[in-house]
Amino acid sequence: MAPIWSRQPFKAIYIAFALLVKVPVLLLLSLRFLFPTFRPIPNLTFRITLFARLVREYILFQAQTRHNEKSAVEASQSKAKDRFAKAQTGDATLYTDVLEATQVIKPAEVGGLWYPGPPPLSEDLQDEKVVLHFPGGAFVIACGIDLNGRMFSPFVLKELKADRFFLAQYRVAEGPSTRFPAALQDLVTFYHYILSLGYKPCNVLVSGDSAAGNLAVGLVRYLEQTAVLPLPAGAMLWSPWTHVTKTAGQDYLKETNVYADILAPEILQWGVDAYLPETGLSKDILPYVSPLHHPFHTSVPFFIHSGKAEGFCDTIRVFAREMSAVEGNRVRHHETDLAPHNSAFSHLATGLTAAIRRAFEDAQEFFDEQA
Questions:
Q1: CB burial class (10 A; 0-12, 13-18, 19+) of residue 307?
Q2: Separation CA 208–CA 239 (nearest Å)
Q3: pLDDT tens-digit readout, 199-253
Q4: Which are the contacts of 118, defined by CB distance < 8 A and separation ≥ 6?
Q5: Per-domain residue ranges for the chain?
Q6: Under a CB-based contact definition with an 8 Å cutoff, are residues 134 and 214 in contact?
Q7: In CATH, 70-370 is 3.30.70.260
Q8: What's the CA gap between 56 and 334, in Å, rounded?
Q9: What is d(CA 287, CA 228) in angstroms, rounded to the nearest whole number?
Q10: Which residue ranges traverse the bilayer (predicted)?
């Protein structure tokens, strides 16, 4: 059931409460954070600590008011003009097994943004390298805005030496028709779209952050199991949400660094309540929803990034070890000191730009070794 604050006039009351009460509290906290002893992790900088707390409060606001940012993404896509592109659904044979369409959940047209610009239709793209990235958002918040793309794409275009970057916004969970497997259907649609333009699979990297890191794992698992499309050259996971349970909010509170990170447990609980299938988690679906403890063999090399100051750090380490333990898998896990969740998108605010650049350089070195 949605919180009372997600409906008017209670939403307005919550906003007023935040402005009148939470803002002064945050100002007092900022004074406390000047002293390392009073920080959730004493060796974190004041800048990172304050940033994480401010973002956490905004994420809590999103969860309590069910503010999913879809309108912001749509406005951003509209302003992007020719950099915005739509991906049409493919043939029904692309969506089989756990992704098979039902009367309620069907593949749909989805869109995204190109960086630095769209590929010229008149050119042969077989030698171009492209990174197809899916933004996080706990399955319920749309994060495919141009600002996020501009934060991430410079690393992709320079450190990863890619020619293009595509920020692909899948459907977020907001009703029966967008529960699992809707988002994964969209990932297949986007990947098929990239290949249909003329890109060779060996020149395509798929990438995802947070909940979309989870989805990117699901995409590779699906392609391995069904062979409906050729496999990409590699996969990058940035702070992936690998341990997804029906009680995600409570489970998150048991993790390391919870109170120092940007995520609020309420956003994770909203995510699973909206995303998990109403019919329950069968043994076939569970690995797609929660990849932790469900490793699989893949010929696709995985680069996994996490921050040592994020709440998901322990589960990401375990997932990376489990995938590495499967014979034939190629996995590199890169951890960034002092980094909170999804630091690749907040490097300017946290002062971690150089550290994130090193992570991308490590990713490029790793994929070069696999070529």
A1: buried
A2: 9
A3: 999 999 999 999 999 999 999 999 999 999 999 999 999 999 999 999 999 999 9
A4: 82, 83, 85
A5: 4-65, 70-370
A6: no
A7: no
A8: 24
A9: 19
A10: 12-35
CA dihedral 109, 221, 175, 165 (to 10 degrees): -40
Residue indicated by tokens 């009703």: 175
Quickly tell me which residue has 């008149």 as its tokens: 122
Q: Rounded to two decimals, what is the model's pTM?
A: 0.96
Smallest CA-to-CA distance from 59 within 304, 256, 341 is with: 341
User: What is the gyration radius of the CA atoms in the chain, in angstroms?
Assistant: 20
Kindly report, residue by residue over 285-300, the tens digit of the pLDDT: 999 999 999 999 999 9
